[in-house]
Design goal:
2 domains; five-stranded mixed beta sheet; 12 helices
Amino acid sequence: MPTEETAIPTTVEELDAAGARGMGAGFKRVYPDLYAHILHAIFDGNSSAAEEYLASGHDVVAGWWRAKGLIARGKDRPRRNRNSDRDYEMTGAEVWELWGEQPLEEYAEEYTWKVPRGHEMVSLVCLSDLHAQSRLFDKNRLASTIEYIREDPRRRWVCAGDLFTNASKQSVGSLSHQTVDIEAAIRGLTFGLKPIANKCIGIAHGNHDARIQNKLDLNWNPVRNLCQNLEVPYLGYMKHLVLHIGSQRYTVYIHHGTSGAATPGGRLNAGLKVMGTVVDDLTIIGHLHDEMQRKAIRRGPADDPDEEGRIPIVDYKQHLVMCASFERYGDWPQERALPPTPLGSCRIEFSGKTHDWRVVS
């Protein structure tokens, strides 16, 4: 039997010499750290062949590989040099198996927030639509906000997208209105936001940030690069958050936002539409360059039964928070006679003792 001193096998012959043939699921105990990778390399991702060699149950090896992020292929998949076999087409069975490997689960981002001793409330500062490349970008306002977040240990921040303008020939506005290119803008925001990176709960991207990604169908987004530079969570276009604040648990949904509404009523309806897709305490959106908040009530069964053992129907509070921008008025919004909108951030104050919050402009 193999031991810890046994060299890692790299061929079927070395597996035979180690007594692995017919070992079944016991192979995992012999090589507790590398069992999946050894088999994947030797059998070239052919899980059926590996299971036949070990005389294991169906889908045992394939399950090991999926758990380690390795691709499992069917027995009919021939070994080949993928660099040279350009014309290989997946079989119907392989396509069917591939579809089964697509992740269907969605998970929330969790954040534990310790309330400083002697305090009950903490503040989440909500940023959105910086448009840092725009010549109308209000950098001084953002710098003041950064200092506001930095100076108090009770404060954290989140951003709902459109950190960059990221203009292209196909987008609204002129490329000449951008002060720097996208790579320089990433460096600039990395430098500016670095002092408060350790207080960031997460950063989402917006439609402007995704322009290059969407136009060219590239798996590249400047906000992902920024998050990597700052070592903060990247939230995509939308993300559920669970905040553990003191003894309380709050659910928050970050969504960049939708719609091109130009009136307050249209913008409010666009925000309520997003909030209506989720069950949460707060929904935070950007995109519309306006500052609004709206409370709503949803009704449903209580978490716990009453004294008589019945489950009452109760009211749950839900709150929409729409974030303003850091882009001053001018250029194409002014050309189209769109009204000026508020600038800056808002904050949400959470209690760590009771399930309560308030939104402060």
